[in-house]
Amino acid sequence: MYERPPGDSEELSWHNGWPWLFHVFGQAGLGDLRLPLEYELPGSGQRVDALLLGGRPGGGVTAVVVELKQWTEVVSTTSLFTWTRGVKYTHPCRQAATYCHYLTNWVDDPELKLEVRAAAYLHDADSNVVAVLRVAVASSSVSHDVCVLGQVEVEIASSPEALAVMLGAEGLEPLPMRRCGDSWRHVIANRGGLLCRGTWRVPPLQG
To answer: What is the pLDDT of residue 107?
Structure first.
């Protein structure tokens, strides 16, 4: 998949996280959209967990950066950093916002009318953890727009449309490659990772 093979911990993370990711997108009625996984940002060596791609009804392409976390607790957090399991991490909203900024500046194709949004999905976190992370970025000029949700939010969503709004993916429709400009075809074709497209089967979840 990449110039280096994934490590055991990385493969385990994919095994644990991807079924939840497919599940939430299926629940939100987004299963027909394109979904590059482990998308490598050009020239950076960084990888986006998932990049949901869809077209807007009025024209243009929307990319939703999804940062996937398997955290069950947060010891403390600021708008920049979060401490959990004895380790200091970049706050997931800040991380996703950074990827958004990178994509917005790198993809230079007016034909796309590109809009980049972001969400952080913590499928193992309870509502208290999600609330703490939200509060930390509420006044941040960089990452306050990044949606944060956990499994509780997914379960109580009143409709697929409401869940799509939580994910920042409301109103998106399948995006045939012929509607993409040359820049975005290059983005999808040459950055490694996995590309899921078509209707996904919502897998059974464990736990």
So the answer is: 79
